[in-house]
Amino acid sequence: MSEVRSALRRMAAYYLLLAVGGVVFTAGVVPDNFPTRNLSTVYFLALTVCLVLYYAHRVTPSGALSSMMKSISWMGLVLILLRGVKYSAFSEVGVLARHTWYLYYVPMLLLPLFLFHVSLLIAPKNRTRAAVIRYGSLALTAVLIVLVLTNDLTQLIFRFELGFADWDHDYSYGWAFYVVTVWQYSLYLASVVVLVIKCRVSSAKKNAWVILIPFAVGAAMIALLGAGKMPTLAGGNIVELPEALVFTAAAILECCMELGLVPTNTDYGNLFRHFSISSQITDRRGVPVYISHTAVPLTAEQFNAADGDRIGGHTVLHRMKLPGGYGFWQDDLTEIDRLNGELAEAKEALTQETELIRLRSELKEKQTKIEQHTLVYDTIARRTQTQSQAITRLAEEGRTSPEPAIKKQCRDRIALFGAYIKRYANLTLLSQESDAVEAGELALSVSEVLRYLNFCGIPGEFVGSADGIIASGAALCAFETFETILEASHPSLRGVFVNLSETESILLKMTFENMTVPIPGDVIGRLEMADIPTEVQQEDDVTYVCLTLPKGGKTA
Predict the structure, then answer these.
(1) What is the Cα 445 distance to its own chain's centre?
(2) What's the CA gap between 326 and 527, in Å, rounded?
(3) Cβ burial, residue 304 (10 Å; 0-12/13-18/19+)
(4) Phi and psi, residue 386, nearest 5°
(5) Are both 262 and 281 inside the same structural domain?
(6) CA angle 323, 324, 327 (to 5 degrees)
(7) Cα-based distances in Å from 440 to 222, 364, 427, 444, 483
(8) Three-state SS for 531?
């Protein structure tokens, strides 16, 4: 209810000022001669100048809303000025006085128009629609103003006797006058209705009835003036039309501002008293003008701090430039800093956990590689078990035999088996890395075994010209076949010749002199499984074995 009481007090002040001007000056209490002549005009001009300054102080400093609010006060000033001109400067010049009277209607129509525009500019929901309504109302008002100003030609507003005889008293109203009047008060009423509808403050809507008081008082004064029933004092009306319009519009707008229907640029003290945020507005020297109950005056160092600087362990000071001073507010970052600390700890824990996961992955990868290598080595050991056992037997035989020739023979054969094991292991490892090996790797393996076969007293020779790629499984199977034939017929062999060539396929041609043991059936089966066509020819004591090796893909 404090807003209602404040609105009523301010309304009473407006009407008291109007009554003073009407009773003391307008109604002839003060003589209308020098030096007090036209004192009522000066009085009302002074009041409207105060109204201009008042709105300039109270409304927002910029924007369309501010311009409309200030324009209302300026229209009041123009209307009072025209009042003085009509009744003083041109009172004896009929044409000028009459046109000054017509000019009354410019501010009279613009006053409600600007108030209507104020209501449209506050929190518009549809800016395009609001703009269309503003421009439409402005256009209609401009047409009505033109009708009034050209009344001497049309007499649609006021009708006079021929030759404008006694025009100031003997006239009647045309139909356009009623249009102007209805439009004028429709704008006043529409302004109040729009402001109430748009207001989101329930208390302001509840107290909007207060606006009806100045609206009703203004309508009553204008009705009394129109009917010639306005009370008189010393032969003059206590209120004339210009001041009645100005004070009605001012009282309506004052009620709207007091109730909160129209935003204003004052009452910051009450706002800051209810602020829960630590904030304040200072002058240019840092002296607080408005300060909330949770804020403390700033030190000189804090006043000169940059926007966003910390002034405590968990407090950030913000500042902004304002006309005539600065605005400051503080953000308490205690909770945010706590959360940031927890996030930092969580991040550190996640980093450590990520590192632990990475190390576990590396360890698992290494374990997997070790397991894979172990499986490969187990495979190599299993597939060369026969050769390993032969090496063990030969080593024991050479150690126990007293004959140097037997020792040398055992040593040479151990070297032969060792060369095979080494090369077989190499091919197996290469096959784990890729599905294909170069033909040169098979050539090196065969040529090394033949070199150690020469040490055993059996001539061996290798010729190779293949540069292609062989499937890894085919290369291993061919090398195993070669070694199996050597071991089976070793005691009787008198020579070995191997040729590795390349045509559409890789051909491994092996020639054995005095090969006494045929190729075992399990070896033939493995060759067939590896898709290696095998051709064996026998001429006297020379055996020809040709293996057609399939070409592989790309090596790793």
Answers:
(1) 67
(2) 95
(3) exposed
(4) -60, -45
(5) no
(6) 75
(7) 119, 35, 11, 6, 18
(8) coil
Q: How far apart are CA 493 and CA 512, in angstroms?
A: 7
Quick one: tokens of 224? 């009394």
Residues forming a β-bridge with 507: 501, 548
Residues 389 and 324 in one domain: no
Note whether 502 and 467 are within 8 A (CB). Answer: yes
Give the integer Cα–Cα distance in Å for 136 and 410: 120
Same domain flag for 319 and 406: no
**E-assigned strand segments in 242-287:** 279-283
Compute φ and ψ for 306, nearest 5 degrees.
Answer: -75, 160
108 within 8 A of 270, measured Cβ to Cβ: no
Of 266, 292, 318, which marks where a domain is finished? 266
Domain boundary, last residue among 317, 332, 347: 332
Q: Same domain, yes or no, for 321 and 257?
A: no
Q: What is the DSSP letter of 281?
A: E
SS3 of residue 276 by DSSP: coil
**277 and 260, same structural domain?**
no
Q: How many domains, in total, are found in the chain?
A: 3
Per-residue pLDDT of the chain (556 residues; tens, 9 = 90+): 577 888 888 888 888 887 777 666 655 555 555 444 466 777 777 888 887 777 777 776 666 777 787 888 888 888 888 777 766 555 555 577 777 778 888 888 888 888 888 888 776 777 788 888 888 999 999 999 999 888 888 888 888 877 777 767 777 888 888 898 889 888 888 888 887 777 766 777 777 788 888 888 888 888 887 777 877 776 667 777 788 888 888 888 888 777 777 777 666 666 666 667 777 788 888 788 777 777 777 777 777 777 777 777 777 788 888 777 888 887 777 788 788 888 988 998 888 888 888 888 888 888 888 877 778 777 777 877 888 888 888 788 888 888 888 888 888 888 888 888 888 888 888 888 888 888 888 888 888 888 888 888 889 888 887 778 888 888 888 888 888 888 888 878 888 898 888 877 888 888 888 888 888 888 888 888 888 888 888 888 888 989 888 876 544 4
Chain centroid to Cα 414, Å, comes to 78
Structural domain span for residue 515: 384-549
Same domain for 301 and 179 = no
